[in-house]
Structure formats: structure tokens, C-alpha cells
Specification:
By secondary structure, the chain is mainly β. It has six helices and 47 strands.
């Protein structure tokens, strides 16, 4: 009997111990379900490479053997780790979540020339790296000192780029860009193979185009120019046309053409006359816009020059049901369009400007207004109603500030001489930061009305900082009540992830040379701050070039003095490459291929490309006009016109077309004049490359045996419940009267 009693005592003692332990634990319901700390482990280059080679395969937790840092899971973590490769891990419920961290020592910037794989490597501050050990497609890539970059043979498949620099191995996934796909309708998609083949065969002998194109662009080209941009009723329309055979580039020899007037292309139109050529391909004609033409105002009309044989194709004599096919039988040489409306040209030009885009208390802004007539003389009877309308509000300096939609309305007479000044009073603004629009409505004694708008900002703060770019320099100024003051400030250059690239302490006002590898700048003092995003400003690089029979010339305009790389293509062949900060490029080149000149540069941390195509047009004529800069009404002025060829020699027997019109027709566009020389084929573009993203985030099944001790999970009630040591019991009070 003693053995059973002893066993019972042992059982109740063990049960009592478990119950006591359970009641000594923290409640289960509010328990955290993650580890107290998140841990950072340093991993090897081989471990990182597996993420790139096997993106769908989860890593082995055995790579986590070199912990270097940790932080409380609930706290915000700032990545201040030195360059290297790391894995961040944290326990979440019954999973071990991981995230790959690549603090690269060499940052890759691809230069897209759609030919080969060109790239540069820079450190965190944007300094160029030319001594890295680079491998692409298992081949070593060396630095090209002349071109100032690395050049690799392109791969037809996605490849991994490996860069060893400063004792850190960096990996990049290089992916070839895919051609954009578009939907193409397939009428045979629901047919069997044999039925579709038979259908295609029958269609070879079947006419498809029921509606023929009546555009003259198929066989002929040229230009038609009118003497006015817009015509009123009873105006006289004068036009000149020059027509060429598109294939031979020779003028047409038709001695006489029909002149047809139409409102729309599908109209029958009406023949208004016949025009005779005054030389091969050249025609001049005029007609009055009389009431008998029965034209509708505010419409565009088409002049169609046609072969006399087209006169027999009249819709009134046609009994079929294919009107468009019937009209397409007309032989059309050239068409032109003009506007017909009862317009009224404004004789007054009204304009406004502001002396600053931002102002505040004690720093008033000024609005300048000006109205001039067609002779650029001031308007003496002008009056303006100025309205200030709120666009948005910023921070308020009081708990509640009422900001009306309309801040102010003011009427004033324009000064008879020069510009009229209106100082914007501070009293019209609330105690808040406000953005607003100034709407200025002009009226004169003839009730001619014009308007102009200006956008402004009112900053109520006494202290403010202004930041703007001037060339390659960041101009930073501290303002106190509208006046520039001296004060200490911190200027930080940030990347796209808002990591600090550089930080300097300066005395404002200050001038700072910009770093094009930065995404933005922050200027901060004790009482104010300002941000400037480089991407909101244009890099300013532009190209202009020309060719002679044996040379090519290109000028690179670079106002921000950015370092750039260039590629020069003759046809489909790369003929030159290099790097520069300023460049006027000259090269001997006498091939007839089109020259493509590309410039690659970094702006706002991103790779950019500008390009221009330069061709030698041996049939291009140059017109030089010498005439007075201005003439007075009634004055007769002599105009000298000189026409030269591509070699600068005078051209005899040239056909000239000269016309003029007032600049009040702001939307007028000169007609396109076709080039009569040989056409050029543009360079065949190869598919470019970009850097692909790998999935470095995931989770593993929690290895309780390891992480219960290393992460201290065995002290957390949730994990004690999910991983009990034999028996786990917990009791908690219910929050209401219902039994639980």
C-alpha cells in the first residue's frame, strides 16, 4: 500500500507546482506575439547570391550565425549599418520573418544607349568608382578610362552583375527590357487550321478595300499656303500650291487642275474654277467668299486640286450605294484647309508680372500691369479689376483662423506711361500661410476685355528660408520680416530613401554646389526650414548639331555643369564615345548615314538621356532675308532675299513664296514643305536594360529549439502557450458578468 500512496503524493505535488506556476505567469490574452527584439545578422556574399539565383527558394537559417545588432521590435529602426550584406529577422507568431538588407558600397547607374550595356559605379556620395572588380556573365568587365565608364557585352537573358569594392560584394539583377505588346485582332482565331488557311487563300483574290483612301499623300506631296490664317465673309482667298510626284521628287506637269471647295472630305463639294500652272508643279489662284458659295461660319473648309477628269465623278449622277468608293476615283493632287469665321482681332495686349512669388509681413510684393496697342504704345483708357482668390492654406498661427475664398478686390486705372504698380498690402491676409491667385481683368472704353493670372504665396511666418537653383549652385537665404539676415544653418543632401548623403554647417546666405546624385536638399535653422527637390527642376542639358558634306558638329549646352557621357552612332554603328563637362564636338564624317548623338547624365539620382539626330541634306536650300527691323505705316521698304544651296552657292531659277500676317494670329502654323533629297533611315534600336528587384523578404517556420533561447521567446506568455513544457494552464478574469 505504501507505493500507491507515494505515487499519489508525487502526482498532487506536481499538479500543485504547475498550477502555482501558471498563476505566477502574465495573462495570455494581452501577451505580445512577437519577439522583444529584432536582430541583424551579417551574411556572406554566397548567401546573398542565392537570393539572386534562386529567388523562389527560402534561405537556410544556418546562415544566421553572425549577429551584429538588435533593436526593440516596437521601435523605429534607422539603417546606419556600414556597407555590407545583412539579414534582419524577427519572430512573429510561429514564423521567423526575414528581410534582406544590402548596404551597397558601389551603386550602379545604367546609361541607356539601346546598343550595349554601359554603366557607372559611384559610392554613397556620388563619387565615381573606377577600380572595382566587376563580373558580368562570368566575364570580367574593366573600366574604360576614355569613355569614363564600364562597358559589358550585352546578354540575351537576365544576368547577375557582381561588383567587389571596399571589401563588400554587391549584386545587381540585370534584366533585358521587353518590347511592348499590343492587341492585334485575328479574324481567324475561332477557325480550324484548314478553314483559316482556305479563307486566307480566297482573300488573296478578293478586293478588301471597299472604301478607298482619297488622301493625295499616296502619290503626290507638296504644300499649299494661304494669304490669311482665318477668313471672314466676303474676304478674298489667295493660295499658292506646289505639287511634286512623291516617288520621283519632280514637279507634276499637269497644265491645268480643277479647284474644288469642300466642307468635309466625304462631301461631294463644288468646283469653283480651274487653275493653270505658271511653271511645272506651281499654281496660284484666288476667289471671293461670296454668299453664293453658301458657306457656314465657324467651319474649316478644304481646297482640293484635282485632275480635270475628276469632274465626271458627281454624286448627283451616281445611283450606287458606295459613295465613298465612287468619290475615291477622283484623282486628287493636293489639299489645303482654311478657317472661315467672323473673327475680331484684338488690338490690345495686356500683361502682368510679379516681382516675387512669395512674400510675408514686412516684405510686400508688387504686381505690375501693362496694356499696349498694336504699335506697342501704352493704352490710355484702360482700367483693371484685380481679384485675389485663395488656392490653398498651410499652417495657421492661431487655433482657428478664417481664410475667405476671396481675399481682396481692387479697381485701378492704368498709368498712361510705362507699367502700373500695385503694392499688395499685408492687411488683406489672415494670420496663416496662404497660396492664392491674382486675376486681373482689363477693360477699355471700347469694352475690349482681356485677363491675366499670377500665382503667389503668402507666408505669415516671421522667419523663413528661401532655396533656389542658379546654374550648378544652391542659393540659400534666411529671411526675417522680408529682409535677408545672417544665421547658421545645416544643409543636408538626401537620396530618394531620405538617407543623408552629405551634411554641412554653413552661415546663410550661402552658395552650395549641388550634387546631382542627391534627390533633394534640406536647409534647416533653429526657427525655419526649407526643402528643394532636384527632380522639380530641369537639368537643362540640350543638344544642337549640324552636318556638312564631310563633318559633324554638336554643341552640348550644360548650364549646371553636370558631368556627362556621350555616344555617337553613324547609322547602326557606334563610331565614338567619351565623357566631358563641356563639349563642342567636331568629327570628320562623310558617310550618308544619319548621325545619332546621345548624352547620358545623372540628375536627382537618376540616369537621364538626351539625344539628337543629325543628317546632311544636300538638297536643302537656305533662305536669307535682309529687311529693316521695323517700318512705319505707309513706308515702302526694300527686302533682299538670297537663296543658297548646301555648299553656300547661289541658286538660280528658284521658286519663292513670300507671305506675311499679323502676330495676332497666335495659333497660325506655317505649312510643311517636303524635302526633295534622299530620305534617311533611323538607327535600329536594340532593347535596353534595367535593374530588376529581387524578393528579399519572407518567412521561415520558427525553429523553437533555437530561437526560444536566442530570442528569449520562452519568457513570453503567447509562446509558453503555443510551446508548453508538458502542461500550460492560465486563468483570467472576464471583463463582463458573463461566464467564460
Amino acid at each position: 500500500m505504501q507505493a500507491p500512496i507515494k505515487n499519489s503524493l508525487l502526482f498532487f505535488s506536481f499538479l500543485s507546482f504547475c498550477i502555482t506556476a501558471a498563476f505566477g505567469q502574465k495573462p495570455l490574452t494581452p501577451s505580445r506575439q512577437s519577439s522583444y527584439y529584432t536582430y541583424i545578422y551579417k551574411i556572406t556574399a554566397g548567401d546573398v547570391l542565392k537570393f539572386y539565383r534562386y529567388p523562389r527558394k527560402k534561405p537556410d537559417e544556418q546562415i544566421l550565425h553572425n549577429p551584429i545588432d538588435s533593436f526593440k521590435t516596437n521601435d523605429k529602426w534607422n539603417n546606419t549599418l556600414p556597407p555590407g550584406n545583412y539579414l534582419k529577422v524577427v519572430a512573429k507568431k510561429n514564423l521567423l520573418s526575414y528581410s534582406l538588407i544590402e548596404n551597397r558600397s558601389a551603386n550602379l547607374k545604367l546609361l541607356a544607349n539601346n546598343y550595349d550595356l554601359r554603366f557607372i559605379l559611384v559610392d554613397q556620395t556620388g563619387k565615381a568608382i573606377n577600380n572595382a572588380l566587376v563580373q558580368f556573365n562570368n566575364h570580367t568587365v574593366t573600366y574604360d578610362s576614355k569613355a569614363g565608364l564600364y562597358i559589358a557585352n550585352p546578354s540575351k537573358r537576365d544576368t547577375i552583375l557582381k561588383v567587389d569594392y571596399a571589401d563588400v560584394t554587391n549584386y545587381y539583377a540585370i534584366k533585358k527590357q521587353q518590347r511592348s505588346s499590343y492587341y492585334h485582332y485575328n479574324p481567324y482565331r475561332h477557325m480550324s487550321f484548314f478553314k483559316a488557311a482556305w479563307k486566307r487563300f480566297k482573300n488573296l483574290f478578293k478586293g478588301h478595300d471597299k472604301y478607298y483612301s482619297r488622301q493625295p499623300a499616296d502619290n503626290y506631296e507638296g504644300f499649299m499656303v494661304f494669304n490669311k490664317a482665318i477668313y471672314k465673309p466676303h474676304d478674298t482667298v489667295k493660295f499658292k500650291a506646289f505639287i511634286l510626284n512623291k516617288k520621283s521628287k519632280q514637279p507634276v506637269t499637269a497644265a491645268q487642275l480643277l479647284v474644288r471647295l469642300k466642307e468635309r472630305y466625304e462631301d461631294d463639294g463644288k468646283i469653283i474654277g480651274k487653275v493653270n500652272s505658271y511653271r511645272d508643279g506651281a499654281y496660284e489662284y484666288s476667289f471671293a467668299l461670296t454668299d453664293s458659295l453658301d458657306l457656314s461660319l465657324d467651319e474649316d473648309y478644304t481646297i482640293s486640286l484635282e485632275d480635270p477628269s475628276s469632274e465626271k465623278y458627281k454624286l448627283d449622277d451616281y445611283d450606287g450605294d458606295d459613295d465613298q468608293g465612287f468619290l475615291a476615283k477622283r484623282k486628287v493632287f493636293l489639299t489645303g484647309r482654311f478657317k472661315y469665321e467672323e473673327y475680331e482681332l484684338k488690338s490690345i495686349t495686356f500683361s502682368t508680372r510679379i516681382d516675387k512669388e512669395e512674400h510675408g509681413p514686412g516684405n510686400p510684393a508688387t504686381l505690375y500691369l501693362k496694356a499696349v496697342d498694336e504699335n506697342n504704345l501704352p493704352v490710355t483708357d484702360g482700367r483693371v479689376i484685380v481679384t485675389f482668390n485663395t488656392r490653398g492654406t498651410g499652417t495657421r498661427r492661431q487655433n482657428y483662423t478664417f481664410v475667405p475664398d476671396q481675399l481682396w478686390t481692387h479697381q485701378l486705372q492704368l498709368d498712361p506711361v510705362g507699367e502700373t504698380r500695385l503694392i499688395i498690402p499685408d492687411s488683406i491676409f489672415p494670420k496663416a500661410d496662404v497660396t492664392y491667385t491674382i486675376n486681373s481683368e482689363f477693360l477699355n472704353s471700347n469694352n475690349e476685355q482681356q485677363s491675366a493670372n499670377n500665382d503667389m504665396s503668402y507666408r505669415y511666418s516671421r522667419f523663413s528660408i528661401t532655396a533656389k537653383l542658379n546654374g550648378d549652385t544652391l542659393m540659400s537665404t534666411a529671411v526675417d520680416n522680408g529682409k535677408a539676415v545672417q544665421t547658421m544653418a545645416t544643409i543636408s543632401a538626401l537620396n530618394a530613401k531620405y538617407d543623408t548623403i552629405t551634411r554641412v554647417r554653413v552661415m546663410l546666405p550661402a552658395k552650395t554646389i549641388i550634387n546631382p546624385y542627391a534627390d533633394s536638399y534640406n536647409i534647416e535653422t533653429d526657427s525655419a526650414y526649407a526643402d528643394l527637390d532636384l527632380k522639380d527642376n530641369n537639368a537643362g542639358i540640350s543638344l544642337s548639331g549640324y552636318r556638312t558634306a564631310d563633318s559633324v558638329f554638336v554643341k552640348v549646352d550644360n548650364p549646371r555643369h553636370l558631368h556627362f557621357w556621350y555616344s555617337v552612332f553613324g547609322g547602326n554603328k557606334l563610331i565614338d564615345a567619351g565623357q566631358a563637362n563641356n563639349l563642342f564636338y567636331v568629327r570628320a564624317y562623310n558617310d550618308q548615314n544619319l548621325v545619332n548623338f546621345q548624352v547620358h547624365y545623372i540628375w536627382a539620382g537618376e540616369s537621364k538621356t538626351e539625344a539628337t539626330d543629325i543628317m546632311y541634306r544636300d538638297k536643302l536650300l537656305t533662305i536669307n532675308v535682309r529687311q529693316p527691323v521695323s517700318v512705319y505705316p505707309g513706308q515702302q521698304a526694300k527686302t533682299d532675299i538670297v537663296v543658297t544651296d548646301a555648299k553656300g552657292q547661289p541658286v538660280a531659277n528658284a521658286d519663292l513664296t513670300a507671305w506675311s500676317m499679323t502676330s495676332k494670329f497666335a495659333d497660325y502654323k506655317a505649312p510643311y514643305v517636303p524635302y526633295l533629297g534622299k530620305g534617311f533611315t533611323y538607327r535600329k534600336q536594340k532593347m535596353g536594360f534595367n535593374t530588376g528587384n529581387i524578393n528579399g523578404d519572407g518567412s521561415l517556420q520558427l525553429n523553437w529549439k533555437r530561437w526560444s533561447k536566442e530570442m528569449g521567446l520562452d519568457s513570453i506568455a503567447y509562446y509558453q502557450f503555443t510551446h508548453p513544457n508538458k502542461i500550460y494552464r492560465v486563468e483570467e478574469d472576464a471583463k463582463d458578468s458573463l461566464p467564460r
